[in-house]
């Protein structure tokens, strides 16, 4: 394939699209950052903060008390304006198209909706090197793959200094997988954004047509288009793993050194999210096994009592014996659940470092 066919030229412009992702501990980080921004910042800011689906979208109210930029819960198809903060509403993905905001109940990514990756990915697709991506405090690694996409399109990648983050996993994951441009504490981030948004990108960036196709497919999936019809199975290699959300077959997708997973219905999981979810489900399954065994013990003893009352001692004794055997099995399963370990890639890395020490 010729160079002209293999690449797409992304036109440059002013860096005035800022996308922010945060999870646990991110509420205070977002509030501190917005409080330090000038009210005349010539940029549009888009925020995804992980929250429960039944939580009222209170973040815009809190941000408006800082008396800087106007913050609102994003509305589907509303125009994008500078000097504004658009916040993903509860249980909705926040996506960007050219000139407008989109709100969607597409499949969860990394167990969340809203999730950071869909926002980052759609921003990179629509605005290329005009995008500034920021990862703040949070657990696990949502946003890492999206920040990689922003960086691959010529955008700027920023992470909060992990040492000051309440939950450093999200910044640390981004630092490990993405060539981050700036690693700064919240106190210095507003000044940095003022400088970056005043710059104009003068060099157009190139991306491969395959990467453009992949990003477009995943953005359309987040926008509620059927994943199978969009060609999700062409984006990676089928795996033996089942999606924790729907039990569909997962496809392994690579972004540079990042490996992540999507099922044919559209759910997405990072390696960390998948590992954490699977190990959580193991514990749930073990407790369910204990419940089942204990129910059998109760029933066996009850039947033993019944046959003892009917003066059938041999049969009663057999039921009591089976109940004792079941109790022994319950002890083994109970010991297993108590020794079961909740895993994540971060916890395994920490253990590896401790072993080396």
Number of strands: 15
How much helix, percentage-wise, in residues?
A: 40-55%
Strand content: 15-25%
Number of helices in the DSSP assignment: 12
The radius of gyration is 25 Å
State mean pLDDT (0 to 100 scale). 92
Q: How far apart are the termini? A: 50 Å
Uncertain spans: 1-5
The secondary structure category is alpha/beta
Give the biggest beta sheet.
Answer: 7 strands, parallel
Name the strands of the widest sheet in spatial order: 4-5-3-2-8-9-10
Q: Give the ordered list of helices and strands.
A: HEEHEHEEEEHEHEHEHEHHEEEEHHH
- Silhouette: elongated
Description:
This protein is α/β, with parallel strands linked by helices and 357 residues long. Helix content is 45%, strand content 20%. It contains twelve helices and 15 strands. It has helices at residues 3-6, 26-36, 59-64, 116-127, 144-152, 169-177, 186-197, 209-222, 227-230, 271-309, 313-339, 345-356, and strands at residues 7-10, 17-22, 44-49, 70-73, 84-87, 93-97, 100-104, 131-135, 156-160, 182-184, 205-208, 237-242, 249-255, 258-263, 268-270. A seven-stranded parallel sheet has the order 4-5-3-2-8-9-10, sandwiched between helices. Strands 12-13-14-15 form a four-stranded antiparallel sheet. Helix 4 packs parallel to helix 5, helix 5 runs parallel beside helix 6 (169-177) and helix 10 runs antiparallel to helix 11 (313-339). Mean pLDDT is 92; it is low at 1-5.
